[in-house]
Amino acid sequence: MGFSDQLGRFRKDNPAPLYLQLQQLIRDGIGSNVLGQGDAIPPERDLAIEYDVSRITVRKAIGGLVEEGLLTRRRGAGTFVAGRVEKSFSKLSSFTEDMAARGRKASSSWISRAPGQVNPEEAMMLGLSPGAPVLRFARIRYADDEPMALEFSTIAGYCLSSVDAVKDSLYGALDKVGNRPVRALQRLRAVPFGTEHAKMLGVDPGHAGLLIERRAFLRDGRPVEVTRSYYRGDAYDFVAELSDI
């Protein structure tokens, strides 16, 4: 079955530009679950032949859907229907817990993990004296083997015995020794990915990202964690419940 057999073809009486018509066919296919999360979109050449349009028209249509977050490009693999994740701002949880709650498998690849001495910015954020020990973790986070985020964390040295204490989940390791944070302050802002970050996440440089800066605290009020996480803008929705109470 061809792609057009699934989604339909252009209507002859539709005056809209062809790239917008193709976008709408794909958008409707996603909305009606004809195309599901992770489904592959045919290559530009195949779509151009099937719909009798130029590759430029196909590229413009696909590019617009990528910007909307409905499709995602994976370097060297192709274009796929995006699987977006909702992350609540009202609950303090780890990436591993977020993925498990959505039936997805979380995994990581380490960029680096090492002990060190606190730098001036970390000392201020964590309330530590100059030269105090810290543990630093940097990794790529995956959901069902798809790169979703970059995570750079600094933990006060007294909270864990060593960097090797962290296997799959940082918060899981902290919980085991009674040092899991119970509250946090978070700041969210939009950022474009630079070349290095984009390469690690399999997206193009300049791709829209979301930077979350987190400062987390123990029950006794001591700050324990400073984390900067860079999330793919096409894969995440951040949700907050508001009330006037």
Automatic annotation (TrEMBL):
- Tell me the leader sequence span: none
Q: Which GO terms describe its molecular function?
A: DNA binding; DNA-binding transcription factor activity
Question: Which keywords are on file for this protein?
Answer: DNA-binding, Transcription, Transcription regulation
- Please give a single GO biological process term from the UniProt record: negative regulation of DNA-templated transcription
Answer yes or no on keyword DNA-binding.
yes
What InterPro entries does its record include? Answer: Bact_HTH_transcr_reg (IPR050679), Chorismate_lyase_/UTRA_dom_sf (IPR028978), Tscrpt_reg_HTH_GntR (IPR000524), UTRA (IPR011663), WH-like_DNA-bd_sf (IPR036388), WH_DNA-bd_sf (IPR036390)
Stretches assigned to the HTH gntR-type domain:
16-84
List the Pfam families hit by this protein, alphabetically: GntR, UTRA
Q: What is this protein called?
A: GntR family transcriptional regulator
